Amino acid sequence: MDDTSKKLNAELEKNLAQLRALRDEVRLKAHLASMEVKDSWRELEPRLGAIMDQAAKSASEVSRKAVTEAIQALEKLRASIR
Q: pLDDT tens across 41-65, in order?
């Protein structure tokens, strides 16, 4: 594995850990939130599982971008709950 692949894998693992933590936090807050937030969560949650599964299988630029976008979507949803 070359240096670029190692860096990509390390970044992807870090982002996946952040994504899992955000997912768990938003899941809990959505459970207690308004119906609008619950609807947003129900739409986003299945996509998260698919993104995490794909990223775990393939450490690529596409995976990195998908994880980054999912993190941004979760952060936006989390901010709307506060």
A: 888 888 888 888 888 777 788 888 8
Long-range contacts of 50-59, Cβ-Cβ distance < 8 Å, separation of 24 or more: 51/19, 52/16, 52/19, 52/20, 55/12, 55/15, 55/16, 56/16, 59/5, 59/8, 59/9, 59/12
Query: Rounded to the nearest 5°, which phi and psi values hold at 49?
Result: -60, -45
pTM greater than 0.85? no
Backbone φ and ψ for 34, nearest 5 degrees, come out as -70, 170
